[in-house]
Amino acid sequence: MVIGDFSGRSRLDACPGALQVHAAADGGLARVRVPGGRLTVPQLRELAGAAATWGTGVIELTSRANVQVRGLGEETGFAARMAEAGLLPSLTHERIRNVLASPLTGCDARGVLDVGPLVADLDRRLCARPVLAGLPGRFLFALDDGRGDVAWLGPDAGILPDGTGEAALILAGADSGLRVPVTSAVTALLAAAEAFLAELTARETHAWRISELSDGAELVAARVRAALDTGSAGPVRLRPPAEPYRAGRPSTAGEPVGAVGQPDGRVALGVAVPLGRLTSAQAELLADLASHGEVRLTPWRGVVLPGLARAGLLRAAARLAEAGLVTDPGSPWIGVTACAGRPGCAKSLADVRADAARATVSHRGGGTAATTGAGPGAPIGSDAPDGTGPGSRAEPEGGTPRAVAPHVADSPRTGTLPVHWAGCERRCGRPRGRVADVVATGDGYRVDLDGQSLTCADIEETTAAVAAARGET
Ligand code: SF4
Protein backbone atom coordinates (compact mmCIF):
# COMPACT_ATOMS: atom_id res chain seq x y z
CA MET A 1 0.00 0.00 0.00
CA VAL A 2 1.31 3.47 -0.86
CA ILE A 3 0.09 6.33 1.25
CA GLY A 4 -0.56 9.55 -0.56
CA ASP A 5 1.49 11.48 -3.04
CA PHE A 6 3.05 14.23 -0.98
CA SER A 7 5.86 14.91 -3.28
CA GLY A 8 8.84 16.74 -1.93
CA ARG A 9 10.32 19.19 -4.40
CA SER A 10 10.24 17.59 -7.83
CA ARG A 11 9.88 14.00 -6.75
CA LEU A 12 7.92 11.80 -4.42
CA ASP A 13 8.72 11.82 -0.75
CA ALA A 14 10.08 8.31 -0.55
CA CYS A 15 10.32 7.98 3.22
CA PRO A 16 9.51 4.39 4.04
CA GLY A 17 6.86 3.34 6.51
CA ALA A 18 5.48 0.12 7.86
CA LEU A 19 3.15 -0.03 4.88
CA GLN A 20 5.27 1.71 2.25
CA VAL A 21 8.33 -0.52 2.33
CA HIS A 22 11.50 0.73 0.63
CA ALA A 23 13.27 -1.69 -1.69
CA ALA A 24 16.87 -1.61 -0.41
CA ALA A 25 19.75 -3.66 -1.75
CA ASP A 26 19.35 -6.17 1.07
CA GLY A 27 15.57 -6.47 0.83
CA GLY A 28 12.57 -4.52 2.03
CA LEU A 29 13.13 -1.78 4.60
CA ALA A 30 10.20 -0.85 6.82
CA ARG A 31 10.24 2.08 9.21
CA VAL A 32 7.95 2.29 12.21
CA ARG A 33 7.30 5.66 13.79
CA VAL A 34 7.59 5.83 17.56
CA PRO A 35 6.41 9.27 18.74
CA GLY A 36 8.58 10.46 21.59
CA GLY A 37 10.58 7.26 21.24
CA ARG A 38 8.20 5.60 23.68
CA LEU A 39 7.66 1.89 23.46
CA THR A 40 5.89 -0.34 25.89
CA VAL A 41 7.62 -3.57 26.79
CA PRO A 42 5.13 -5.65 24.76
CA GLN A 43 5.70 -3.40 21.75
CA LEU A 44 9.46 -3.84 21.98
CA ARG A 45 8.99 -7.61 22.16
CA GLU A 46 6.72 -7.50 19.10
CA LEU A 47 9.35 -5.55 17.19
CA ALA A 48 12.03 -8.02 18.21
CA GLY A 49 9.86 -10.92 17.15
CA ALA A 50 8.92 -9.35 13.83
CA ALA A 51 12.54 -8.48 13.03
CA ALA A 52 13.60 -12.03 13.78
CA THR A 53 10.73 -13.60 11.87
CA TRP A 54 10.69 -11.54 8.69
CA GLY A 55 13.83 -9.40 8.71
CA THR A 56 17.52 -9.65 9.49
CA GLY A 57 16.89 -9.96 13.21
CA VAL A 58 18.14 -6.43 13.80
CA ILE A 59 16.12 -3.39 14.84
CA GLU A 60 17.81 -0.22 13.60
CA LEU A 61 17.36 2.89 15.71
CA THR A 62 17.09 6.16 13.79
CA SER A 63 18.01 9.75 14.59
CA ARG A 64 14.31 10.52 14.93
CA ALA A 65 13.90 7.91 17.66
CA ASN A 66 12.04 5.69 15.22
CA VAL A 67 12.91 2.10 14.31
CA GLN A 68 13.41 0.26 11.07
CA VAL A 69 13.74 -3.36 10.03
CA ARG A 70 15.67 -4.52 6.97
CA GLY A 71 15.69 -7.61 4.83
CA LEU A 72 11.94 -8.02 4.55
CA GLY A 73 10.51 -10.16 1.79
CA GLU A 74 7.60 -9.14 -0.40
CA GLU A 75 4.91 -10.92 1.56
CA THR A 76 5.15 -10.60 5.30
CA GLY A 77 2.85 -10.05 8.21
CA PHE A 78 5.06 -7.21 9.44
CA ALA A 79 2.58 -4.34 9.09
CA ALA A 80 -0.28 -6.36 10.52
CA ARG A 81 1.84 -7.31 13.51
CA MET A 82 2.81 -3.67 14.06
CA ALA A 83 -0.84 -2.68 13.88
CA GLU A 84 -1.79 -5.34 16.42
CA ALA A 85 0.94 -4.02 18.71
CA GLY A 86 -0.52 -0.51 18.53
CA LEU A 87 2.40 0.82 16.51
CA LEU A 88 0.34 1.66 13.46
CA PRO A 89 -2.62 3.65 14.76
CA SER A 90 -3.29 5.42 11.46
CA LEU A 91 -2.97 4.07 7.95
CA THR A 92 -3.08 7.56 6.47
CA HIS A 93 -0.77 9.38 8.87
CA GLU A 94 1.83 6.76 9.76
CA ARG A 95 4.81 8.40 8.04
CA ILE A 96 4.22 11.86 9.50
CA ARG A 97 4.31 10.75 13.15
CA ASN A 98 7.88 11.98 13.55
CA VAL A 99 8.00 13.37 17.06
CA LEU A 100 11.12 13.84 19.18
CA ALA A 101 10.86 14.30 22.92
CA SER A 102 13.45 14.75 25.65
CA PRO A 103 14.23 11.12 26.58
CA LEU A 104 14.66 11.84 30.28
CA THR A 105 11.59 14.03 30.62
CA GLY A 106 9.75 13.38 33.86
CA CYS A 107 12.66 11.29 35.16
CA ASP A 108 14.96 13.93 36.59
CA ALA A 109 14.95 17.56 37.59
CA ARG A 110 16.65 19.04 34.55
CA GLY A 111 13.48 19.63 32.59
CA VAL A 112 10.82 22.18 33.53
CA LEU A 113 7.87 20.26 32.11
CA ASP A 114 7.10 16.57 31.66
CA VAL A 115 6.32 16.49 27.95
CA GLY A 116 5.27 12.84 27.95
CA PRO A 117 1.54 13.68 28.01
CA LEU A 118 2.07 16.25 25.26
CA VAL A 119 3.59 13.57 23.02
CA ALA A 120 0.47 11.44 23.32
CA ASP A 121 -1.78 14.47 22.79
CA LEU A 122 0.16 15.63 19.73
CA ASP A 123 0.10 12.16 18.18
CA ARG A 124 -3.62 11.74 18.76
CA ARG A 125 -4.55 15.16 17.36
CA LEU A 126 -2.08 14.83 14.48
CA CYS A 127 -3.72 11.61 13.33
CA ALA A 128 -7.19 13.11 13.77
CA ARG A 129 -6.66 15.86 11.20
CA PRO A 130 -7.11 14.58 7.65
CA VAL A 131 -5.34 17.58 6.12
CA LEU A 132 -2.15 16.75 7.99
CA ALA A 133 -1.85 13.45 6.15
CA GLY A 134 -0.48 15.75 3.46
CA LEU A 135 2.67 16.55 5.42
CA PRO A 136 5.88 15.22 3.92
CA GLY A 137 7.38 12.26 5.74
CA ARG A 138 10.43 14.42 6.50
CA PHE A 139 8.51 16.93 8.64
CA LEU A 140 9.76 16.72 12.23
CA PHE A 141 8.21 17.77 15.55
CA ALA A 142 10.16 18.17 18.79
CA LEU A 143 8.91 18.47 22.35
CA ASP A 144 11.79 19.63 24.51
CA ASP A 145 11.17 19.63 28.26
CA GLY A 146 13.30 22.72 28.77
CA ARG A 147 16.71 21.10 29.04
CA GLY A 148 17.54 21.96 25.44
CA ASP A 149 18.42 18.49 24.24
CA VAL A 150 16.03 18.01 21.31
CA ALA A 151 14.88 21.54 20.47
CA TRP A 152 18.08 22.10 18.53
CA LEU A 153 18.07 18.92 16.52
CA GLY A 154 16.53 20.73 13.59
CA PRO A 155 12.80 20.19 14.03
CA ASP A 156 10.40 21.88 11.66
CA ALA A 157 8.17 22.68 14.62
CA GLY A 158 9.09 22.33 18.26
CA ILE A 159 8.63 23.78 21.70
CA LEU A 160 11.11 24.74 24.39
CA PRO A 161 9.42 25.61 27.72
CA ASP A 162 11.15 28.24 29.83
CA GLY A 163 9.68 27.38 33.23
CA THR A 164 7.32 30.36 33.37
CA GLY A 165 4.34 28.60 31.83
CA GLU A 166 5.36 29.65 28.35
CA ALA A 167 7.27 27.87 25.64
CA ALA A 168 9.34 29.19 22.78
CA LEU A 169 8.05 28.00 19.43
CA ILE A 170 10.91 26.57 17.40
CA LEU A 171 10.48 26.72 13.64
CA ALA A 172 12.97 25.31 11.14
CA GLY A 173 15.34 24.58 14.01
CA ALA A 174 15.47 28.11 15.40
CA ASP A 175 13.58 30.25 17.87
CA SER A 176 10.71 31.90 16.01
CA GLY A 177 10.32 34.57 18.68
CA LEU A 178 6.78 33.39 19.40
CA ARG A 179 5.93 32.47 22.98
CA VAL A 180 2.86 30.37 23.64
CA PRO A 181 1.29 29.08 26.85
CA VAL A 182 2.47 25.53 27.45
CA THR A 183 -1.19 24.56 27.68
CA SER A 184 -1.44 25.51 23.99
CA ALA A 185 1.84 24.00 22.90
CA VAL A 186 0.27 21.16 20.92
CA THR A 187 -2.19 23.55 19.31
CA ALA A 188 0.72 25.73 18.23
CA LEU A 189 2.63 22.77 16.76
CA LEU A 190 -0.40 21.65 14.78
CA ALA A 191 -0.93 25.22 13.61
CA ALA A 192 2.67 25.30 12.40
CA ALA A 193 2.18 22.11 10.43
CA GLU A 194 -0.99 23.45 8.85
CA ALA A 195 0.72 26.76 8.14
CA PHE A 196 3.51 24.95 6.31
CA LEU A 197 1.00 23.14 4.13
CA ALA A 198 -0.84 26.40 3.48
CA GLU A 199 2.42 28.03 2.46
CA LEU A 200 3.13 25.20 0.03
CA THR A 201 -0.31 25.62 -1.47
CA ALA A 202 0.03 29.40 -1.73
CA ARG A 203 3.36 29.07 -3.52
CA GLU A 204 2.20 26.15 -5.62
CA THR A 205 5.42 24.43 -4.75
CA HIS A 206 6.70 21.32 -3.07
CA ALA A 207 9.10 21.13 -0.16
CA TRP A 208 9.82 18.60 2.52
CA ARG A 209 10.96 20.94 5.27
CA ILE A 210 10.15 24.50 6.35
CA SER A 211 13.81 25.38 5.96
CA GLU A 212 13.60 24.62 2.25
CA LEU A 213 11.24 27.57 1.70
CA SER A 214 12.73 31.04 1.43
CA ASP A 215 11.58 32.96 4.50
CA GLY A 216 9.72 29.80 5.42
CA ALA A 217 10.08 30.12 9.19
CA GLU A 218 8.99 33.77 9.20
CA LEU A 219 5.94 33.15 7.03
CA VAL A 220 4.91 30.07 8.98
CA ALA A 221 5.32 32.04 12.23
CA ALA A 222 3.05 34.78 10.89
CA ARG A 223 0.41 32.23 9.97
CA VAL A 224 0.70 30.52 13.37
CA ARG A 225 0.32 33.81 15.18
CA ALA A 226 -2.73 34.73 13.15
CA ALA A 227 -4.29 31.32 13.74
CA LEU A 228 -3.69 31.35 17.49
CA ASP A 229 -4.74 34.96 17.98
CA THR A 230 -8.14 34.16 16.55
CA GLY A 231 -8.52 30.93 18.47
CA SER A 232 -8.69 29.98 22.11
CA ALA A 233 -5.05 29.10 22.51
CA GLY A 234 -4.38 31.95 24.89
CA PRO A 235 -2.09 34.93 24.55
CA VAL A 236 0.67 34.61 22.02
CA ARG A 237 3.57 36.91 22.58
CA LEU A 238 6.32 37.91 20.26
CA ARG A 239 9.79 38.29 21.67
CA PRO A 240 13.11 38.82 20.01
CA PRO A 241 14.86 35.47 20.02
CA ALA A 242 17.03 35.50 23.10
CA GLU A 243 20.57 34.30 23.27
CA PRO A 244 21.45 31.49 23.13
CA TYR A 245 18.29 30.59 21.28
CA ARG A 246 19.07 32.22 17.98
CA ALA A 247 19.21 30.30 14.79
CA GLY A 248 22.06 27.93 14.42
CA ARG A 249 22.80 27.34 18.05
CA PRO A 250 24.61 24.01 18.08
CA SER A 251 23.23 21.21 20.13
CA THR A 252 25.14 21.08 23.37
CA ALA A 253 22.94 18.57 25.07
CA GLY A 254 23.59 15.00 24.38
CA GLU A 255 22.97 11.38 24.67
CA PRO A 256 22.10 10.09 28.11
CA VAL A 257 24.39 7.17 28.89
CA GLY A 258 24.69 5.77 32.40
CA ALA A 259 22.55 6.09 35.49
CA VAL A 260 20.45 9.16 36.25
CA GLY A 261 18.85 9.52 39.66
CA GLN A 262 15.13 10.13 39.79
CA PRO A 263 13.42 12.15 42.56
CA ASP A 264 11.47 9.04 43.55
CA GLY A 265 14.68 7.23 44.42
CA ARG A 266 14.67 5.13 41.30
CA VAL A 267 17.11 5.38 38.45
CA ALA A 268 16.82 5.97 34.72
CA LEU A 269 19.49 4.04 32.87
CA GLY A 270 20.79 5.38 29.56
CA VAL A 271 22.06 2.64 27.29
CA ALA A 272 24.07 3.29 24.14
CA VAL A 273 23.50 0.90 21.27
CA PRO A 274 26.65 0.54 19.14
CA LEU A 275 25.91 1.91 15.67
CA GLY A 276 22.20 1.96 16.54
CA ARG A 277 21.80 -1.72 15.72
CA LEU A 278 19.76 -3.61 18.25
CA THR A 279 19.56 -7.35 17.80
CA SER A 280 16.35 -9.12 18.69
CA ALA A 281 18.15 -10.75 21.62
CA GLN A 282 19.34 -7.35 22.88
CA ALA A 283 15.81 -5.98 22.52
CA GLU A 284 14.45 -8.91 24.52
CA LEU A 285 17.02 -8.24 27.22
CA LEU A 286 16.02 -4.57 27.40
CA ALA A 287 12.40 -5.67 27.67
CA ASP A 288 13.33 -8.04 30.49
CA LEU A 289 15.12 -5.25 32.37
CA ALA A 290 12.46 -2.56 31.79
CA SER A 291 10.71 -3.17 35.09
CA HIS A 292 8.83 0.11 34.77
CA GLY A 293 7.15 -1.21 31.63
CA GLU A 294 8.56 1.37 29.25
CA VAL A 295 11.56 1.76 26.98
CA ARG A 296 12.43 5.15 25.52
CA LEU A 297 14.38 5.43 22.29
CA THR A 298 16.64 8.44 21.92
CA PRO A 299 17.56 10.55 18.88
CA TRP A 300 21.15 9.42 19.52
CA ARG A 301 20.12 5.89 18.60
CA GLY A 302 20.20 4.73 22.18
CA VAL A 303 17.71 3.70 24.81
CA VAL A 304 16.62 4.89 28.26
CA LEU A 305 15.14 2.51 30.80
CA PRO A 306 13.26 4.72 33.28
CA GLY A 307 12.17 3.84 36.78
CA LEU A 308 14.64 1.08 37.62
CA ALA A 309 15.19 0.06 41.21
CA ARG A 310 18.68 0.84 42.45
CA ALA A 311 19.10 -2.65 43.76
CA GLY A 312 20.21 -4.79 40.89
CA LEU A 313 21.57 -1.94 38.81
CA LEU A 314 25.04 -3.42 38.69
CA ARG A 315 23.64 -6.78 37.65
CA ALA A 316 21.59 -5.11 34.94
CA ALA A 317 24.66 -3.27 33.65
CA ALA A 318 26.62 -6.51 33.58
CA ARG A 319 23.92 -8.25 31.57
CA LEU A 320 23.75 -5.34 29.13
CA ALA A 321 27.53 -5.35 28.70
CA GLU A 322 27.54 -9.10 28.12
CA ALA A 323 24.96 -8.53 25.41
CA GLY A 324 27.12 -5.87 23.73
CA LEU A 325 25.33 -2.76 24.98
CA VAL A 326 26.99 0.22 26.66
CA THR A 327 26.28 2.02 29.93
CA ASP A 328 29.65 3.74 30.25
CA PRO A 329 29.56 7.41 29.20
CA GLY A 330 33.30 7.16 28.59
CA SER A 331 32.99 4.37 26.06
CA PRO A 332 34.55 5.13 22.66
CA TRP A 333 31.33 3.83 21.13
CA ILE A 334 29.66 7.04 22.21
CA GLY A 335 29.24 9.36 19.27
CA VAL A 336 30.15 6.79 16.61
CA THR A 337 27.53 6.53 13.87
CA ALA A 338 27.43 4.97 10.43
CA CYS A 339 25.17 4.94 7.40
CA ALA A 340 23.72 1.66 6.15
CA GLY A 341 26.71 0.90 3.91
CA ARG A 342 27.11 -2.49 2.30
CA PRO A 343 25.17 -4.69 1.88
CA GLY A 344 22.10 -2.56 2.59
CA CYS A 345 22.91 0.29 0.21
CA ALA A 346 23.88 -0.30 -3.40
CA LYS A 347 25.74 3.03 -3.52
CA SER A 348 28.11 2.12 -0.73
CA LEU A 349 31.79 1.65 -1.44
CA ALA A 350 32.43 -0.29 1.77
CA ASP A 351 30.90 -2.18 4.65
CA VAL A 352 31.16 0.89 6.82
CA ARG A 353 29.48 -0.60 9.85
CA ALA A 354 31.91 -3.48 10.01
CA ASP A 355 34.83 -1.10 9.53
CA ALA A 356 33.49 1.36 12.11
CA ALA A 357 33.09 -1.46 14.60
CA ARG A 358 36.57 -2.78 13.88
CA ALA A 359 38.11 0.66 14.28
CA THR A 360 36.21 1.41 17.48
CA VAL A 361 36.93 -1.95 19.08
CA SER A 362 40.57 -2.03 18.10
CA HIS A 363 41.36 1.43 19.42
CA ARG A 364 41.66 1.71 23.21
CA GLY A 365 39.53 -1.34 23.77
CA GLY A 366 36.20 0.03 22.67
CA GLY A 367 34.60 -3.37 22.57
CA THR A 368 31.87 -4.28 24.95
CA ALA A 369 31.97 -7.42 26.98
CA ALA A 370 30.35 -9.25 24.12
CA THR A 371 33.30 -8.57 21.90
CA THR A 372 36.21 -8.18 24.26
CA GLY A 373 35.34 -10.09 27.38
CA ALA A 374 35.44 -6.89 29.43
CA GLY A 375 33.28 -6.52 32.50
CA PRO A 376 30.39 -4.14 33.01
CA GLY A 377 30.90 -0.47 32.38
CA ALA A 378 32.51 1.44 35.20
CA PRO A 379 29.84 4.16 35.53
CA ILE A 380 27.40 2.00 37.39
CA GLY A 381 29.95 1.31 40.07
CA SER A 382 31.66 -1.88 41.04
CA ASP A 383 32.14 -1.83 44.74
CA ALA A 384 28.61 -2.21 46.04
CA PRO A 385 26.15 -4.96 45.33
CA ASP A 386 23.64 -2.57 43.87
CA GLY A 387 26.16 -0.61 41.88
CA THR A 388 25.75 2.60 43.86
CA GLY A 389 28.98 2.61 45.83
CA PRO A 390 31.80 5.15 45.66
CA GLY A 391 32.70 6.00 42.15
CA SER A 392 29.28 5.10 40.92
CA ARG A 393 27.48 7.29 38.45
CA ALA A 394 24.28 6.46 40.24
CA GLU A 395 23.83 8.62 43.32
CA PRO A 396 24.47 7.10 46.75
CA GLU A 397 21.52 5.93 48.78
CA GLY A 398 19.78 8.93 50.25
CA GLY A 399 21.89 11.34 48.27
CA THR A 400 20.64 14.17 46.17
CA PRO A 401 19.47 12.86 42.83
CA ARG A 402 21.75 14.02 40.12
CA ALA A 403 22.37 13.22 36.53
CA VAL A 404 25.59 11.71 35.38
CA ALA A 405 27.45 13.92 33.00
CA PRO A 406 25.89 12.99 29.69
CA HIS A 407 27.79 12.63 26.52
CA VAL A 408 28.01 16.09 25.00
CA ALA A 409 27.65 15.97 21.28
CA ASP A 410 30.01 18.76 20.41
CA SER A 411 32.14 18.70 23.51
CA PRO A 412 35.84 19.30 23.14
CA ARG A 413 36.52 16.54 25.65
CA THR A 414 38.96 13.95 24.46
CA GLY A 415 37.32 11.03 22.76
CA THR A 416 33.84 12.51 22.50
CA LEU A 417 33.96 14.13 19.08
CA PRO A 418 31.18 12.56 17.01
CA VAL A 419 32.46 10.38 14.18
CA HIS A 420 30.28 9.46 11.23
CA TRP A 421 31.21 6.68 8.81
CA ALA A 422 29.64 6.86 5.36
CA GLY A 423 29.79 4.61 2.32
CA CYS A 424 29.69 7.55 -0.10
CA GLU A 425 29.77 11.32 -0.21
CA ARG A 426 26.08 11.57 0.55
CA ARG A 427 26.82 10.88 4.23
CA CYS A 428 23.31 9.77 5.18
CA GLY A 429 22.56 10.01 8.87
CA ARG A 430 25.34 12.48 9.62
CA PRO A 431 24.72 14.15 12.99
CA ARG A 432 24.43 17.92 13.24
CA GLY A 433 27.31 20.03 14.41
CA ARG A 434 31.02 19.40 14.43
CA VAL A 435 31.67 15.87 13.23
CA ALA A 436 34.66 13.90 11.95
CA ASP A 437 33.48 12.37 8.66
CA VAL A 438 34.96 9.06 7.61
CA VAL A 439 34.00 8.62 3.97
CA ALA A 440 34.66 5.50 1.88
CA THR A 441 36.58 6.27 -1.30
CA GLY A 442 36.80 2.84 -2.89
CA ASP A 443 40.50 2.71 -2.05
CA GLY A 444 40.12 3.19 1.67
CA TYR A 445 38.69 6.10 3.61
CA ARG A 446 39.07 9.85 3.80
CA VAL A 447 38.75 11.52 7.20
CA ASP A 448 37.34 15.06 7.04
CA LEU A 449 37.33 17.45 9.97
CA ASP A 450 37.14 21.24 10.10
CA GLY A 451 37.81 21.60 6.38
CA GLN A 452 40.88 19.39 6.40
CA SER A 453 41.10 15.92 4.87
CA LEU A 454 43.37 12.95 5.35
CA THR A 455 43.32 10.07 2.89
CA CYS A 456 43.84 6.65 4.46
CA ALA A 457 44.78 3.54 2.50
CA ASP A 458 43.57 0.93 4.98
CA ILE A 459 41.59 0.45 8.15
CA GLU A 460 44.65 0.75 10.36
CA GLU A 461 45.48 4.19 8.99
CA THR A 462 41.83 5.16 9.24
CA THR A 463 41.64 4.00 12.85
CA ALA A 464 44.69 6.08 13.72
CA ALA A 465 43.32 9.13 11.89
CA VAL A 466 39.98 8.87 13.68
CA ALA A 467 41.73 8.52 17.02
CA ALA A 468 43.80 11.61 16.26
CA ALA A 469 40.70 13.55 15.25
CA ARG A 470 39.08 12.62 18.56
CA GLY A 471 42.16 13.70 20.45
CA GLU A 472 42.92 10.20 21.64
CA THR A 473 46.55 10.13 20.56
S1 SF4 B 1 25.78 7.62 2.62
FE1 SF4 B 1 25.84 6.67 0.57
S2 SF4 B 1 26.37 4.54 1.02
FE2 SF4 B 1 25.62 5.42 2.93
S3 SF4 B 1 23.42 4.94 3.01
FE3 SF4 B 1 23.66 6.99 2.09
S4 SF4 B 1 23.70 6.64 -0.12
FE4 SF4 B 1 24.11 4.67 0.88
From TrEMBL:
Residues 233-260, 359-416 are annotated as: Disordered. GO terms for molecular function: 4 iron, 4 sulfur cluster binding; metal ion binding; oxidoreductase activity. Residues 29-75, 262-322 form the Nitrite/Sulfite reductase ferredoxin-like domain. Residues 364-378 have a biased composition (Gly residues). Keywords: 4Fe-4S, Heme, Iron, Iron-sulfur, Metal-binding, Oxidoreductase. InterPro entries: NIR_SIR_4Fe-4S, NiRdtase/SiRdtase_haem-b_fer, Nit/Sulf_reduc_fer-like_dom_sf, NO2/SO3_Rdtase_4Fe4S_sf. It holds the Pfam family NIR_SIR_ferr. The keyword Lyase does not apply. It comes from the Bacteria. This is Sulfite reductase beta subunit (Hemoprotein)-like protein. The lineage of its organism: Bacteria, Bacillati, Actinomycetota, Actinomycetes, Streptosporangiales.
